[in-house]
């Protein structure tokens, strides 16, 4: 206010007339104008610097955007569906147009819930500082601008998030485990490298959370199997709750993307008629104990599967679809091979029985000899309940313990008695004080008990060495030859109830 009045006074008397008639400005006005301008400029400079300092203190700065490998393209090439021919090199450097601001934030901050990140973008609370600043841009306000979730990132761009995101609690509270459960969880690890971690999932432990599920393997792995990594392991495929065996997780976002692509390309290639034209670097082999015996010792099942609603809409199940033109379905292919069969002679000490199965998919009633059969099942596609439905509805040999798709066969069975059952050793199970780990009943469920567990186990898996592929591709992002990538041989021992059934049937 004082400066305003002083300016008005000086403006009234700022000019004088000389003897020659020339009007000149008052010297006092010049002195005041120079002093005020200097002070104002200095104050504005300090204010801008202070604002920039405050802005840096209120924002969480993410690392500058850099080129990363295209995990999907790398997975396709590993699966053998790359456009290049054998011996040629392929580029895996990502195109920057494919990386949005949302993807970069979720990649840099995996601990933040995705819903929160999307909300920050909707509320326009995310800023970006471009790496290439034109000569006409000046100051902080010209460099840092709001960015939307779909805006593409350029090399060197920086993203700023509100500093308050560091104070937010995690999306889910950590599920606590006692010492025995933690020891049991770490004992499930089969293999670990810089890209993947493989566990032997026990039967009864759900892979993912849901309604009525207190603890899942996904949640346990995110909390306790991170080891020295900042990112938690990520699921890349599923196993049914009652099944067991090899479960692969990606230790980083990039390795999980590569694994997703490998699993997806296997199903895609099979659905397009590629059943055996080349060597397969990715294979899964399950062991299953089924009721009865298939007609042939080995074969290939190619029957589409679809979802149907039963019990007046209360539940759903997967079934073989005959008319694919009228009902939605998915192509499903399974290879099977008989490992061993418990014939009448071999189970002479066990009650003999005969099973009559009604397979109503356009074929007549068939009879199968009594006994159990161990099958090796290799799914060439990854459909929900594929192995269980193919065994029950196509082969007519439902898996032991599968009350969803083999309830008719189980209802007609008699409980078997075995004199050696009581004396079977149980030292294979981990012993400890208190209740069993994660409330899992691992001491029961064999084929000789009244309610047997599901006898389906992912026993072996041939998986490309993703760690070596990523290392080779990162060293040469412009071109890379993956012909020399080796395959990992993963093996998971049978769970206790299946090992018990195997041992006694062969005793």
In a nutshell, what does this entry contain?
The protein has 13 helices and 20 strands.
Task: Describe the fold and architecture.
By secondary structure, the chain is an alpha+beta fold. Helices cover 28% and strands 20% of the residues. The chain has helices spanning 2-12, 27-58, 71-78, 101-108, 114-122, 140-143, 179-187, 217-224, 253-271, 386-394, 407-412, 466-475, 496-505; strands at 15-17, 23-25, 59-61, 127-129, 145-146, 158-162, 189-192, 196-201, 234-235, 244-250, 283-291, 298-302, 305-310, 315-320, 333-342, 355-357, 366-368, 372-379, 456-464, 487-491. The strands form five sheets. Strands 7, 8, 9, 10, 11, 12, 15, 18, 19 and 20 form a ten-stranded mixed beta sheet that branches. The chain has a four-stranded antiparallel beta sheet with strand order 3-6-4-5. Helix 3 (71-78) packs across helix 9. The model is unreliable at 13-25, 35-55, 82-89, 93-97, 135-141 and 344-369 (pLDDT under 50).
């Amino acid at each position: 206010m004082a400066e305003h009045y002083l300016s008005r006074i000086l403006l009234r008397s700022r000019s004088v007339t000389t003897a020659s008639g020339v009007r000149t400005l008052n010297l006092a006005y010049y002195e005041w104008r120079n002093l005020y301008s200097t002070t104002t400029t200095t104050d504005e400079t300090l204010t801008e610097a202070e604002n920039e300092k405050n802005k840096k203190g209120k924002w969480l700065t993410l690392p500058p955007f850099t080129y990363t490998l295209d995990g999907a393209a790398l997975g396709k090439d590993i699966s053998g569906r790359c456009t290049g021919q054998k011996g040629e090199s392929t580029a895996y450097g990502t195109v920057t147009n494919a990386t949005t601001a949302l993807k970069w934030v979720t990649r840099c901050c995996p601990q933040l819930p995705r819903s929160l990140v999307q909300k920050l973008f909707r509320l326009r609370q995310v800023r970006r500082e471009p790496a290439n600043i034109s000569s006409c841009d000046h100051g902080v306000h010209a460099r840092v601008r709001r960015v939307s979730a779909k805006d593409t990132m350029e090399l060197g761009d920086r993203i700023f998030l509100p500093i308050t995101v560091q104070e937010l609690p995690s999306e889910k509270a950590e599920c606590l485990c006692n010492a025995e459960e933690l020891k049991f969880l770490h004992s499930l690890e089969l293999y670990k490298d810089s890209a993947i971690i493989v566990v032997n999932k026990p039967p009864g432990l759900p892979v993912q959370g849901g309604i009525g599920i207190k603890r899942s393997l996904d949640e346990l792995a995110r909390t306790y199997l991170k080891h020295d990594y900042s990112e938690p392991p990520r699921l890349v495929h599923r196993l049914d709750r009652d099944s067991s065996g090899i479960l692969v997780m990606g230790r980083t976002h990039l390795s999980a993307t590569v694994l997703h692509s490998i699993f997806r390309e296997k199903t895609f290639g099979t659905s397009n008629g590629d059943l055996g034209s080349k060597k397969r670097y990715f294979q899964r082999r399950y062991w299953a104990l089924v009721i009865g015996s298939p007609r042939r010792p080995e074969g290939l099942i190619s029957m589409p599967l679809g979802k149907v609603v039963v019990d007046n809409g209360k539940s759903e199940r997967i079934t073989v679809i005959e008319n694919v033109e009228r009902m939605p379905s998915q192509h499903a292919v399974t290879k099977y091979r008989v490992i061993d069969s418990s014939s009448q002679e071999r189970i002479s000490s066990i009650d003999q029985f005969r099973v009559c199965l009604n397979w109503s998919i356009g074929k007549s009633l068939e009879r199968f000899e009594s006994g159990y059969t161990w099958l090796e099942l290799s799914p060439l596609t990854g459909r929900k309940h594929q192995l269980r439905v193919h065994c029950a509805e196509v082969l007519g040999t439902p898996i032991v313990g599968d009350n969803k798709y083999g309830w008719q066969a189980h209802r007609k069975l008699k409980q078997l008695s075995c004199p050696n059952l009581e004396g079977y050793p149980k030292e294979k199970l981990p012993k400890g004080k208190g209740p069993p780990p994660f409330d899992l009943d691992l001491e029961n469920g064999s084929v000789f008990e009244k309610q047997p567990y599901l006898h389906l186990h992912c026993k072996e898996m041939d998986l490309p060495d993703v760690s070596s592929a990523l290392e080779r591709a990162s060293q040469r992002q412009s071109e890379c030859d993956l012909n020399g990538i080796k395959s990992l041989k993963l093996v998971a021992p049978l769970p206790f109830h299946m090992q018990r059934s195997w041992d006694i049937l062969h005793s």
